[in-house]
Amino acid sequence: MLKKPHHLGCMKILYHSIRGTVVAAVALGGSLAICTSALAAGASGPLVAHKAFYEMEMGDNAQNSQILSVMGRSVFAMERDCTGWRSVEDYMIQFVIDNGGADRVLSHFESWEADSGDKYSFDITEESSFEGRKDFGGFVQLNMDSAGEAVFTMTPENVVDLPTDTVFPVQHVRHILAEAEAGEKMISANVFTGAEPDSALMRTSTVVGGWRDAPGDELGQLGEDGYWQINVAYFKPSATTSEPEYVIMFEMQRNGLVRGYEIDYGDFSIEASLTSVEPVEPKSCS
What is the DSSP string of 211-272? Predict the structure, then answer.
């Protein structure tokens, strides 16, 4: 059983876990942290650029949950540039709570990750009915041994040291898909997804389920013959218990396209279903 945070604590977790879900795995959240068009060349691997539209609603709901219903939409774009990947996610989500009130969260998240795996930047604009507006971002530079530092615009005097095995979301997704193809079932990683300093780096434990045969003919050129069931549990590095902050369950094709996902908080969950997806043409590089 996951942690059952009080109302405001839960909303703060939602900021991080919904943002970037498709690449937070990926993501999926993380990034959720987390693709389309033709295969990108060179270091891009099997991932392809895309713009995906999701509808979100309440999933499972425990009897003692303070969240009664969920409604929302998310638009996630993963774009290829000449030296890396740019991800953009916009979402709006509304929660009806047990006191009869409602909370709304609006978020715009942009990130860029270098093909070399040593640079990552992000910018976030968030507005909620319970915390107001926030604008912040950050930058990470890893060294040759993958150790490095994260600098945040909201607290530039506070630099967060990162462990030597830190990876970024796209790199994490690539690794998960490669391990799934190789038959691996358990994967661990420290993933920097971008957020406020105390939740930007998450320790993850991934379980790869079996391949599900399910032709995606309705997705056109982006559909494949099935998907992997991939479950990623997210922990804060300082956690002293075996209970994750949250778990994201992805239906991920081999090309990285996420057909749907569910974010499980223990006392309730949010389900997101893919409604449509569009190819994104890669930029011309000289």
Answer: EEE---GGGGGG--SEEEEEEEEEE-TT--SS--SEEEEEEE-TTS-EEEEEEE-SSEEEEE
